[in-house]
User: Fold Transporter substrate-binding domain-containing protein from Pseudoalteromonas caenipelagi.
Amino acid sequence: MTFMPYRALLQVAVISLLFIILPSYATQQVKVYAYHLKPPYLIDVEEEKGLYFDVTELLNRFQPMIRFKLEYMPRKRLNRDIEQNTLDGLIMGVSPVWFRDREQTKLAWSNAFMNDRDEFVSHVKTPFEFAGPSSLYSKTIGGIRGYYYFQVAPVVTLEKATLVETGTELQLLEMVVKQRLDVAVISRATVNYLVAQKKHWQNDIHFSQRPHEFYSRAIVATKSMQAVIDTINNLMRDPLFDKALNKLLADYHITDKDLEIVR
Assistant:
């Protein structure tokens, strides 16, 4: 009978133990979905450019246990997955109101990572100030095809205003600059990004003092992923992470000065 030397036996035992232990310490892979297919949130999905890709990378950089991977997915499919309880990842850049979870009891929510607001944007030569539904009467209003604007829709339904729909926010803003619309609804972060690319538009834009809507953007998941959301919330309380996040937002022309919540 041949006996294995003690040292070799010990090596086999250690290797076997590692195979048992290491999987429990393996990095967890977590998908993150985003559906805002517009700048600065998702600039180029194929090239993985945009704010949401960079926020995802920031989450990866500040902790080693979870590897987040961002993907684009249409809102309708995400809604279906939530309804059927088959959502297998997080959703970035959303508000509890949009998912009928104002009290944040149905889903697991992170702390907000930025403020945002949908603006009424007009030309400085014909500045528009929103003062309730009647201020929209007789206006030609621009919006994105398929979007629902709760301040605008009732007025359009009453045929008191005309809604012109386009495919992109860039088209909307260009129509405002060329005075082909009385007013358009565009998120402030998107306007800031587009105007930074086309600086000659800067002096043509007027924002209503009262916006269409103000909100914060957070990350959401089903309750089964509460531990992952807790990890994200812990990161957001880290001063170093907060500093890096604020710098990232500023790089995309998103600042508290422009995006503070005004009630």
User: Anything to note?
Assistant: Confidence is low (pLDDT under 50) at residues 18-24. The chain has two domains: 27-115+215-259, 117-213. The longest strand covers residues 114-123. Residues 6-21 form the longest helix (16 residues).
